[in-house]
């Protein structure tokens, strides 16, 4: 089928597809430990990355690459980098409530997400210009690139959810060292960067739905609703008292 033949738009305002979509969106739930014995059929990888392929991107650059890791030894090595990074962060007293990254090695589906930062020059930037003005444009261009890859990756996560899997989005790559160690392991060229890891599979333990903000807390009509603004102090309190709960408890056990 050609790309244009694939257009099959739903009728305007029809709820049925929306409701089906929302059941996928609501059930996209992170798990950090998987059933290690489950085998993901090859077709599922294709279905999931087919969803990623249709993601929107700045300048339609599609600056993403997905590397499916099947070798358990390589998964273990990747997990080891994350465990080491978590240890490093703990030593640096980052005080981030870190999960157990050993769970990465248990993921039946493990996909490394890489991006080609050279595409930054495909977005609005000045050529060969080191000025402050261009630095601003370049920063924005990097954001365009990162948002593009995230948009594609999110489609993949939703596709995995639609196939009945739980997911895990892992960005805690940190040090350059881990990047440099991971790239040759997967044959990733120097020009590309590993942005995150996408794990999926059946969960080892029953997953739980995490706290989400109420709609009114994020939705603003016409102008920003000042009720939705929090002060620096409130943010600090949230980080100190709530963050670990919203990450590792179900929504009913946050307060
Ligand atoms: C951009 C992004 C980065 C994330 N990075 C990590 C990570 O490095 N380690 C981790 O354990 N979870 C990570 N997560 C997962 C979040 O912790 C998780 O989505 C959040 O707690 C909400 O839970 P939910 O996915 O079940 O709704 C990340 C999620 C996103 C979208």
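Sequence proposed for the structure above (255 residues):
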């Amino acid at each position: 089928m050609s790309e244009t033949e694939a257009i099959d738009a739903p009728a305007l305002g029809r709820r049925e597809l929306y409701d089906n979509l929302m059941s996928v969106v609501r059930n996209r739930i992170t798990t950090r430990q998987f059933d290690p014995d489950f085998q993901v059929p090859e077709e599922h990888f294709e279905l999931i990355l087919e969803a990623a392929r249709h993601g929107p991107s700045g300048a339609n650059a599609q600056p993403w690459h997905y590397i499916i890791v099947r070798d358990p030894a390589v998964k273990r090595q990747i997990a080891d980098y994350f465990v080491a990074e978590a240890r490093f962060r703990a030593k640096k007293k980052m005080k981030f409530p870190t999960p157990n990254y050993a769970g990465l090695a248990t993921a039946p589906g493990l996909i490394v997400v890489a991006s080609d930062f050279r595409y930054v020059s495909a977005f609005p930037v000045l050529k060969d210009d080191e000025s402050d003005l261009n630095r601003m444009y370049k920063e924005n261009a990097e954001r365009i690139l990162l948002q593009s890859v995230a948009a594609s990756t999110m489609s993949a996560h939703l596709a995995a959810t639609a196939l009945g899997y739980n997911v895990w989005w892992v960005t805690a790559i940190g040090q350059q060292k881990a990047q440099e160690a991971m790239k040759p392991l997967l044959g990733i060229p120097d020009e590309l960067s590993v942005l995150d890891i996408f794990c999926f599979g059946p969960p080892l333990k029953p997953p739980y739905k995490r706290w989400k903000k109420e709609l009114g807390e994020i939705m603003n009509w016409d102008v920003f609703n000042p009720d939705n603004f929090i002060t620096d102090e409130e943010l600090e309190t949230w980080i100190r008292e709530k963050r670990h709960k919203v990450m590792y408890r179900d929504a009913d056990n946050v307060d």
